[in-house]
Write the structure tokens for this entry.
Amino acid sequence: MKALQYREIGSRPEVVSIPDPQVGPGQVLLKVTAAGVCHSDEFIMSLPAEAYVYGLPLTLGHEGAGIVEAVGEGVSGVKPGDSVAVYGPWGCGRCHMCAQGKENYCLNAEAEGIRPPGLGAPGSMAEYMIVDNERHLVPLGDLDPVKNVSLTDAGLTPYHAIKTSLPKLGAGTTAVVIGAGGLGHVGIQILRAISGATVVALDVSDEKLDLATQVGAQHTFLSNPDAVGAVRDLTGGRGANAVFDFVGVQPTVELASAMAGTEGDVTIVGIGGGALPVGFGRIAYDVAVRTPYWGSRAELIETFDLARAGSVEVEIETYSLDEAPKAYERLHEGKIRGRAVILP
Ligand code: NAD
Ligand code: ZN
């Protein structure tokens, strides 16, 4: 089969031919219908050899959807022909976190070498993929896999981040989204759908700010130090009740911290390496700084429910598997509007 692989440190991903995977006991073989392109792929491919832990060659793709092609011995919850999405942050399935469906915070994954598809295990950017356990599958039913595959990360990750802050986001509050890219443009819609907050979006690109407005942001500002005053003005000096940083570089974590008001949340989702000096007097009183990772299985089901209700729609650009390297070039150049989706 054809697959998109990262094969050598520092190289660009390439389309290669590899053997078809065979389904083992307890596993599910999917014929992939859609695979999303995430900035985290770009991040891992930028790592030097000493920091890279995902194995080579790596079949990319941690946002995946497919049709069940075959099931291994003992699988009873799905059958060939079912349309499903893949819950990506695989865990051990036994620990206290996994028991709550929070496999993203599995206590044993690292020690047992369990890695998400596309981030260690072979991913969804291939004609077929193996899913280790049927519990990692969420039925899509009538939802279009191409339009909705990215909800498995670009939807689930902001949903989890926002849901945790909901008690602070009632009517009359203000939430700021930094970075209106793949995650951010879905985050804006989730905030509009499940919170009472007025939504402010920041980005460095006017096109991304247009997208932010299109998907529901009520105010947009260019992402620079002037945005702090703009948010303070909008909130009568109080500052934001929650800031979601979907970039996470040094300038954006500093913006996030400077615009958060008393008792606010600063949630750093982007993995840009920015760091905050948090201490008394350096940030507004009682601000909580959080660094969430992906989300729980229950939250993925809720995210798809939002799509079913028409509250969330991912803006997509589609590419064939042969064109996938081009999608990564456009991501690298910051040109993707919403999310790029590969159709293997
Ligand atoms: P993306 O490339 O689609 O979007 C990034 C957006 O940020 C773009 O619109 C870009 O114009 C904007 N941007 C860049 N620099 C900016 C700045 N200084 N100020 C404001 N906006 C700026 O990326 P994505 O796929 O949405 O991923 C966003 C980040 O989240 C990445 O760092 C990714 O690795 C990370 N991520 C984290 C998790 C998690 O679980 N914590 C999950 C998925 C992705
Ligand atoms: Zn676990």
